[in-house]
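pasting for the record
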Amino acid sequence: MIAAEPRLDDDEPVRMTLNERAVWCSVATVVVSSGAYVALMVSRLLSRPAAEISWVGPMLWTMGLAVAGTVLLTIVSTIAAEASRRGGCSPAGRGEVTSDVRDREIGRLGWRASMRVISVGFGGALVLAMLGADTFWIGNLLFLFGTVGAVVEAITKISLYRRGF
């Protein structure tokens, strides 16, 4: 016999899945790390020409820290959610929701939204390359559109998780 899942009342908030929690963590770390990178590059641009600015190392560090930050923040928030659940802050008998049927469709729609943004950035980078622009501008344009694409993907996913299709 298959046990029925507990029925949620309409007034009861929908529990956050592990995937949704990871999206929230990702958007937070991407915004913070990319904001720090942009601030660093703008401060360097104010004092030197773009061709003289070292940007590859800081960009790689920014991307690496965003990934590591997302992983760590997701782990910490999952542990906190589990501790909260066990501490009596959620109804008894309701375990952590790790995934649900919405996750695959939400992931696909979020990815599609980000690809629209990223493809515009790739087109812009191609135009800059054709015009012979400095690699600083090409690399940073790609970084900018990658960041905006990640934020658009996260906002799309969060919206779908919270408001539905």
